[in-house]
Structures are given as C-alpha cells and as structure tokens.
Amino acid sequence: MGRSTYEPPAGRTFLERPGWPEVLAGAAAYGASLLLVAVLLPLVTDPVVHGNVGLVVSGAMGLVALSVAVLIRIRGLAAFGFRRARPRHLLVGALLGLFAYVLGTIAAIVYMVATGGVQNVQESYQAAAAGGGLSLAFALVAGAVITPLGEEGFFRGVVANALLARYGAWVGVLASAGVFAVAHGINPIMPAAFVVGVLTAILFRWSGSVWPGVVLHGVNNATALLIPLIVELVAA
C-alpha cells in the first residue's frame, strides 16, 4: 500500500487523531446500542416495518458510537475524517461500491458453501424494499444514506483512523475491516462486510476523508436492495 495522502487540517496535528480512548468509548456505546436493538427490534413483527427500522438503527448505532468518541476529548469532526473529498475519490468510491457488491456476494456464497448452510439474514431488508414505492424510498434512504453515514463515521472515522495512525496500513486496514465484519454477526454477511471494510479503509487512507467510503457503502447497499427486486420483476 502506498503512502497515504492524509494530512491533518490546518492548526491540528496527528496527535489529535482518535486513539484508544475514542475507540473503546465508541465500541462500548456501539455494543450497548446493539444489545438494546437485539432486545427491542424483534418486537416489531411486521416484516416491512422491521426491515426499515433495522436499516435506520444500523446507522443510528454508528452515529451514537461516533458521537461518544467525539465527545471524549476531540471536538472537531475533521479529525475523524469528515472533510471535503476530491471528486475523483468519490467517483472511485461509487465504482468500488459496485465491485464490492459483486465480490461480497461471491464471498457470501463461498461462506454458505463452506459452512453447509443457506441463510438469508437480510430478508427483512429485502421485504422493506419490496413493500411498495414509499417503503422502497425509505429503505433506500435508510440503507444507502443513514446506515453508511453511521457505520463509516464510527468504523472508519474512529476505528480505522486510530489503527492506521498507530499500526500502519496493513494492520489498520485488515484489523478495522475484521472488526466491522464481526459486528455484522457470524453469518453470510460477515465476509461481504469484510470486503466493504477493506475497500472503505483503503479509500479512507487514500483520501483522508470518510465521504468516499460513504459513497462506496451507499452504492453497495442500494445495489443489494435493488437487485433482488429487479430479479423478481424479470422472473415474473
């Protein structure tokens, strides 16, 4: 991996990038949110509503964790990668979003073959997308905007940011992607999440901004919501 283009904003130093205090505090907040969601989300029995709520809380958990990390000792969001990205970084992010979907789908299939089980853990999300025009629009906003914003803000802006600064490119990219993958559970989505985690961490290191990763993540999620609908329409 080549040299990073990341530079601290004017008047700041690399010492102001997030470290272990931010990572641990954010992880504690994320874990607490995850437990709360695990208890409350099953109470929503309608599959369409369940899917839409699940997409929203996926992003909300990341935003809560990011907010806690920011409040530890760093007040500015720029230190967490919320800075302007160049158009070419955003374009690469969009193209890699399509690549991530294809590669992630292959990785999920390999996982299912290797483990001998077929499990559609995104059934509720697909139900939300298939629940009519309004539900589809809501699912796309929640899944392709809110979820990427929250997850990129925490897993790249805090976790990958801190690991890249302290342990270098290989450890920073792979370890942060591993954490991101495990956060999605031990299921077929885990390898797909690892693919997204690796690509967005590389984009973050290259651009110094979370926005290209948000674009990649959003394109990947939107594609995952739309492809099953398109396949169903073609097959009908």
UniProtKB/TrEMBL annotation:
GO BP field: CAAX-box protein maturation
Keywords, ordered alphabetically: Membrane, Transmembrane, Transmembrane helix
This protein's record includes keyword Transmembrane: yes
Membrane-spanning ranges: 20-41, 53-78, 90-113, 125-146, 158-183, 189-207, 214-235
Molecular-function GO term, any one: endopeptidase activity
Ranges for domain CAAX prenyl protease 2/Lysostaphin resistance protein A-like: 136-222
Protein's name in the database: CAAX prenyl protease 2/Lysostaphin resistance protein A-like domain-containing protein
Natural source organism: Promicromonospora thailandica
Lineage of source species: Bacteria, Bacillati, Actinomycetota, Actinomycetes, Micrococcales
